[in-house]
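Archive transcription. Copying these from loose printouts into the bound notebook so they stop getting lost. Printout 1 of 2:
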Amino acid sequence: MLRLRRTLLGGFVPALALSVMAATALPASAQTPPPQREAVIEVSGEGRVSVAPDMAIVSFSVVTDAKTAREALDANSKSMTDVLAALRTSGIADRDLQTSGFAVNPQYRYPENNNGNEPPTLIGYQVANTLTVRLREIAKLGAIIDQAVTLGVNQGGSIQFTNDKPDATLNEARKSAVADAIAKAKTLADAAGVKLGRVIEINENAGRPEPVPMMARAMAKDLAEAAVPIANGENNYNVTVNLTFAIDP
């Protein structure tokens, strides 16, 4: 039996018509199936290029002990002034000389076996001034260390070999990484019996160089008696790229 429904205008419409209208008002997304995911091949490639360093970054310190802070500071400043003057005379520019640490510390003698009843005794002060040097002529490194020790450097930090302008080397590593990724993608496509299509996405993870670090021990005065042997080796620049290829039908 067909039922009638009263409208706001006072007329009657079939209830069946209202049901049909409600059905046609459903959102289109409920009726359209989701698009199929595009078939792709995802690979990563690695590129590695080795190159000799052309710059060394050296860190060393002048450490001075005295009974008063004033005496320690004056002695330390004189030694560091001599070191800086010698480095500038050797051709190192001011832009390559940087104070990277400075400290004035009291020195105490702690009593033995006093069970904490006797306070420590102030016996003097220590001043430490640390200098970081960018050396663009690596051949001079051994001689400069010798000279610095003679003039007052008595504590070493580290030596790091690097490259001033590594862009060209990184570009070679990038090309090698992309070639490696393409070769892998072609191998996978051939093995699967499909045709390799266009590149959909490329992203890069460029690593910084792997420098050759040299951790220097505390420097002694007798180092200045002979030239310091230096081996700078090579730096390795690594780049990883991730490529996504379409699979052609």
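Printout 2 of 2:
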Amino acid sequence: MAWLTQLFDAAQQWLFEAVVQPVLFALGQAGVLEDAYAATGWLLVGLLQLAVMLVVIAPLERWRPVEPVVDRAAIRTDVLYTLIHRLGVFRLVLFFSVEPLWDGLFGALRIQGLSTFQLDGLWPGVTDRPLVSLLLYLLVFDCADYAIHRAQHRWDWWWRLHALHHSQRQMTMWSDSRNHLLDDLLRDTLLVFVAQAIGVAPGQFIAIVALTQLSENLHHANLRLGFGALGDRLWVSPRFHRLHHAIGDAGATAAEARVPPGCNFGVLLPWWDMLFGTANFDRRYEPTGVSDQVRPGPDGRLRDYGRGFWRQQWRGLLRLAGRA
């Protein structure tokens, strides 16, 4: 992996010196150059992800779509969500809010003699094998992501935010980032805590996030594709995840999502669904959305999740307050 790391470092250095550093000097922000260099790494990862999406996943969607594209306005909104996340805007929010909080907490614990541990240091020789170490951390993060995802569906207050993600009736590779910003902030806060608690190196954390996001782009795609009887049990496929977004499986409320139980909560690996009895390997492709978009509620009306970024964010806050 050394050559890959060196190539990434060289590209990050070039992007920083050619673009980011001149902009910061022009704005009189030379005091944040060190932090900006780290942020440039995230920007580079985002640009690479967008390239893979456009060059690899987009042609696959055109090759074997599940359904015709009839709502391009909804997709354009999802593109905006993706750009906000992949080009570093949301990462800046985390940098100024969540990361200093956990840095302070774990710094205080170390002062008291309660240091975190290196998970890959529990087994001799693992730290000398970067790929093995990366896979170990990836497994832990995916398990944590599964638990978080179950909570997003089980706890009614969290579902009111997470429902925005499920409200997309025209699901594509861009739909992965379609989340309420508060929902993303909560999830990423927990994942940053896990990263610091088990001692993930910054480079490994970036690699795990990049791999996870690209895989999620693929399995949200408008793509008629499964990985076969064995492959679907090794890695989440577009067909496996689409069942999670099916109108009947997602539910309109947390209570409805439990009767019958929701399915296919796994982010990368279906193993956790298999272990906890939430896996569904049916070979079908269902319409996506939330049931209260197609079935009127007690007031006789369909729920409005909003069209456009700001409207969707506002409607999410109203749902959280019990007013929508």
